[in-house]
Each structure stands twice: as structure tokens, then as C-alpha cells.
Design brief:
The protein is of the alpha+beta class and 268 residues long. The chain is built from 8 helices and 8 strands. The strands form 2 sheets. Strands 3-2-7-1-8 form a 5-stranded antiparallel beta sheet, with helices on one face. A 3-stranded antiparallel beta sheet has the order 4-5-6, covered by helices on one side. Strand 5 (205-208) and strand 6 form a beta hairpin.
Length: 268
């Protein structure tokens, strides 16, 4: 009986029908789970709360983008007109400040004369003030010196056009050499040069202080004319300028002058 019972158990355990039934059961359970998940997703998509949430998120993103996006002109003409207005405003403000600067200088000069005459300010202090004003371009200067002329060449050779133009570096070289030679006052095309004047190329013009200039350039320097001319005429000075002038790529000349006037700095 025991052997028969074991055989029946083994037959039940390894019964192919039983295995097929269990497999079928698992497939049904899996399908029910998938169907249940599908139904849940359908309910979620049909829910109005989902669309309300999505709408809020999209609205928040759009609002943030509009707030962070920089304002850009829709028309280039509008941008150009705005630039013209800003330029006019800047020029008007600069002219007003120039006039105020001239007025303040006149008041300072009057106070200095008054202080030196009545209060007996020492001549040493007044001399130091005058020297500082000279360095700052606050006083008009007249005397002997040199005049340097510089301009673009008449003919421009292909691939050497830059050598036929006067550059800001050329003017800086001349000015630095004049300071080195002992110049007391310098101007370029009437623009007073001080020790902190900037000379830079801006497109086809040269910016000196805050004003743009184009060739030809006339540099006036007041000082000992012999010393100034001797240094400028040195064989090792302004080599590149003189070389280009000898090839007629630019025009360059200098001369001594016994009566030169350099006006005051225009203020801006």
C-alpha cells in the first residue's frame, strides 16, 4: 500500500496537466494585472485634476520665461533711433559740463588771485599750484617749440594699405618722445594733451580724450625748440614713421617755431 501511495504521489506531482494548469493560472493573473494597470491609467488620464496640474505647470514655465527674457527691439530702426537719442543726450550733457568746467576754472583763478594778493600766500605755494595746473592742462601756454605734421599717404599699395595710414600708435610715439624731450605743453589738432590723455583708433578715426579726429594731424609742442627738434630728428627715433615717409606711404614733417600757442583742456 505504501508503494502504491508513493507512486500515486509521484504521478500527481509530475502530472503534465497540473503543470499546464499552473502555467495557465499565472498567465491569467498577469493579464488581470495588466488590465487593471491599463484601467488605472485610463482613469488617471480621464481625471480633470491631471489636466489642471499640467496647465498650472505650463503656465508657470511660460510666466518665468517671459519674465527672464530680455527686451529686444522688434525693428532695427527703433534701435537706431534710440541710439541717436542717446548720442544727442550724451553730447548735450558733455557740452553743459564743459561750460560748467570753464566757469569753475574762472572762479578758481579769481580766488587764487584774491588769495595771493590779500592774504599773502607764499610764492612757493602759488608756483606749485601753477605747475600742477600746467600739467593738468588748465592753463593756456605760449612760447617756442616744434610743429609736427602727419597725414595718410596719397597712394596706397595693395597689401600695404595699413602702412599708408596714420595710426594712433604713431601719434602716441610722437607725444611720448616730446614729453621725454622736455615739452611743457602739447596739443594735437587743438586738443590739449595731458599725461593721462588716451589716444586710440576708433574705426577710421582717432579718439583723443573724448573727441574723434581724422588726418591730417598737427602736433604742437612748447618747450626748448632745439631740444625737442634734436630728439625728434634723431636717427634712432621714430624709425618706422620716417621709413614709411621716405617711401611716400605717409607724409611727415617737423619744424621749429618761435611762437606756438597751446590752449587749455576743453574739460571733457
Amino acid at each position: 500500500m505504501k508503494n502504491k501511495f508513493r507512486i500515486s504521489q509521484l504521478a500527481l506531482t509530475f502530472n503534465p496537466r497540473g503543470i499546464h494548469a499552473r502555467t495557465r493560472h499565472r498567465e491569467l493573473v498577469g493579464r488581470l494585472k495588466e488590465q487593471n494597470m491599463h484601467e488605472r491609467m485610463q482613469k488617471a488620464f480621464r481625471s480633470p485634476y491631471l489636466y489642471v496640474g499640467l496647465g498650472l505647470v505650463i503656465g508657470l514655465l511660460v510666466t518665468t520665461q517671459l519674465k527672464t527674457e530680455s527686451a529686444r527691439p522688434l525693428s532695427p530702426v527703433q534701435s537706431y533711433d534710440r541710439f541717436i537719442d542717446l548720442q544727442k543726450e550724451y553730447l548735450d550733457t558733455r557740452e553743459q559740463l564743459k561750460q560748467e568746467s570753464v566757469k569753475v576754472r574762472a572762479e578758481i583763478s579769481a580766488k587764487e588771485d584774491q588769495g595771493g594778493g590779500k592774504n599773502g600766500v607764499s610764492s612757493a605755494i602759488l608756483s606749485e599750484i601753477a605747475q600742477q595746473q600746467l600739467m593738468a592742462g588748465e592753463t593756456k601756454v605760449t612760447g617756442q617749440g616744434v610743429v609736427v605734421s602727419l597725414s595718410d599717404g596719397d597712394s596706397q599699395i595693395k597689401d600695404e594699405i595699413t602702412k599708408s595710414l596714420v595710426h594712433a600708435a604713431d601719434l602716441r610715439d610722437i607725444v611720448n618722445l616730446l614729453w621725454y624731450s622736455g615739452a611743457e605743453a602739447i596739443s594735437i589738432n587743438g586738443e590739449r594733451i595731458t599725461h593721462n590723455t588716451s589716444i586710440d583708433c576708433i574705426v577710421s578715426t582717432i579718439l583723443i580724450n573724448t573727441n574723434n579726429y581724422a588726418p591730417p594731424f598737427t602736433v604742437r609742442a612748447i618747450g626748448n625748440s632745439g631740444d625737442l627738434y634734436g630728439v625728434l630728428n634723431g636717427s634712432r627715433k621714430l624709425v618706422d614713421i620716417k621709413k614709411r615717409a621716405s617711401k611716400k606711404q605717409i607724409t611727415f614733417s617737423m619744424e621749429k617755431n618761435g611762437d606756438i600757442t597751446v590752449d587749455t583742456l576743453n574739460g571733457l
